[in-house]
Design brief:
Blueprint: H1 3-12, H2 24-45, H3 47-53, H4 69-88, H5 93-105, E1 117-118, H6 120-129, H7 140-146, E2 155-156, H8 157-178, E3 187-189, H9 190-200, H10 215-230, E4 237-239, H11 240-245, H12 248-253, H13 262-267, H14 272-285, H15 295-298, H16 308-317, H17 327-338, H18 343-353, E5 360-362, H19 363-369, H20 374-378, E6 385-387, H21 388-393, H22 397-405, H23 407-414, H24 416-432
Helix pairs in contact: 1-2, 4-8, 9-10, 10-14, 10-17, 17-18, 18-22, 22-23
């Protein structure tokens, strides 16, 4: 019989007092006494179960509130100590040189061309001599990952060393980025990434020529590329692991190369020439010099052939201030138009083309801009509407969006056959000469 049934029966028993009655307060007190007694007995039966629950490790720790200054400082200091310890666990330059020396000493002949190789036996010998920091790299899994078609079952020493270097660089960079993670949650806010890039500038020789007065505009230009492509939901924060996984940080750190070619600088969004080009275009468009762009000023962007209906949509959907666009919004616009094959850019443009906010482009939407013959190019699943995924899958996204937003692009597409014929004729004329 459980404690609830015992309590019910006990309360139903007749009163043994002389007058046969109890006050309401006495009944309540007795009920509470009985409840406490039987509940304690019932809880005692579950003692072993409760002891088991106590063995589960704590997995949630409340973050300090804004007014808990001491707890916040303690958390920051403990994170800094943790990151310093992690940094000391990484191979330094001297240890990397020693690793290369050991690998070269234990190479396994014959060489393939000029490439030194090493077999698994020697690989393990190097791992024993290289020290505890290298232990994680000398595993069967790593060896198998780098093993390809060598008939002797060896791996390239250079490929392995590059693998180690890459791992060390990733960990160093992750630690460096984590130092700017104020929230300590594994992501960077816009201000965090701005601080990281601002302090990185002096370490990049290719940016030595930048005036300090331009630093804020450079940082804004650099940060926008990260957030445009890595924060599609516009949450205002990016996971550190996403920053490490993309190629943008490689492009940024490429500026450490003092002999970086002019061609590489021109194609690198983070280079000084590229940043000055984008900002210079913005200044040239700003005819009234108020630091903002009106619809009329933006209409002169590129070849000045964007359609009025498209420009209307830009100023309807994008963030503006009293009907004018600031530099940050302009950067999103430029990144979308210069990278039309990328899903993030297509998403930006798709939102502008989707005038009814339905999540797809129907005949009305496309007629609103230009031609419904675009359906033939995209070949969507639904013959009456085009989704963003249809646009991406078609591999025609850049062409389609160019036709819809740029008069010159539309004219070029309409006259593509004539242009090809003219090019052929010109090449024939050149051959004749």
């Amino acid at each position: 019989m459980d404690w609830k049934e015992i309590l019910r029966r006990r309360l139903a028993m007749p009163n043994t007092r002389t007058n046969g009655k109890k006050s309401e307060q006495e009944l309540k007190d007795e009920e509470m006494d009985l409840f406490t007694k039987y509940y304690s007995e019932w809880k005692g039966d579950r003692k072993n179960t409760n002891e088991f629950y106590k063995t589960i490790p704590r997995f949630y720790y409340r973050l300090p509130a804004e007014d808990e200054v001491l707890l916040q400082k303690l958390r920051e200091e403990s994170r800094a100590v943790f990151l310093q310890r992690k940094s000391r666990e990484l191979l330094d330059n001297e240890e990397l040189q020693n690793l290369w020396f050991l690998l070269d000493k234990h190479q396994t002949p014959p060489m393939i061309g000029e490439e030194a190789m090493i077999n698994y036996e020697n690989f393990l010998k190097v791992g024993e001599k290289a020290g505890p920091k290298c232990k994680q790299f000398f595993t069967a899994k790593v060896f198998a990952k780098l093993l390809h078609t060598d008939s002797y079952g060896r791996i390239s020493i250079m490929q392995f060393f590059n693998y180690v270097m890459r791992k060390v660089w990733l960990h160093q960079t992750r630690i460096g980025l984590s130092l700017y993670d104020v929230a300590g949650q594994g992501y960077l806010r816009e201000s965090d990434l701005e601080n990281y890039i601002l302090e990185l500038i002096p370490t990049l020789p290719q940016l030595d020529g930048l005036e300090k007065s331009f630093y804020s505009f450079y940082v804004c230009t650099a940060v926008r590329k990260f957030f445009f492509f890595l924060d599609p939901l516009r949450t205002g924060k990016i996971k550190i692991q996403d920053i490490l996984a993309c190629s943008f940080l490689d492009d940024l750190l490429e500026l450490r190369d003092e002999e970086l070619s002019k061609e590489s600088q021109e194609t690198n969004w983070f280079s000084a020439p590229s940043a000055l080009r984008v900002y210079g275009q913005y200044l040239n468009l700003d005819k009234d010099h108020n630091g903002m762009l009106s619809k009329e000023e933006l209409s002169r962007y590129g070849t000045a052939t964007m359609t009025n209906v498209f420009l209307d949509r830009v100023f309807q959907e994008c963030l503006t201030y009293d009907g004018e666009m600031d530099y940050k919004t302009y950067l999103d616009f430029v990144l979308a138009l210069e990278n039309r094959k990328e899903p993030a850019a297509l998403q930006y443009i798709f939102k502008l083309l989707d005038i009814e906010n339905k999540g797809y482009l129907n005949v009305f939407s496309l007629n609103y801009f230009f031609r419904d013959e675009i359906f033939d190019m995209v070949k969507p699943k639904d013959p009456l509407k085009i989704s963003l995924q249809d646009l991406i899958n078609s591999n025609q996204g850049d062409t389609v969006t160019t036709i819809l937003i740029d008069l010159n692009g539309f004219w070029t597409y309409e006259n593509r056959e004539a242009l090809v014929a003219n090019d052929n004729e010109n090449s024939i004329d050149l051959d004749d000469t």
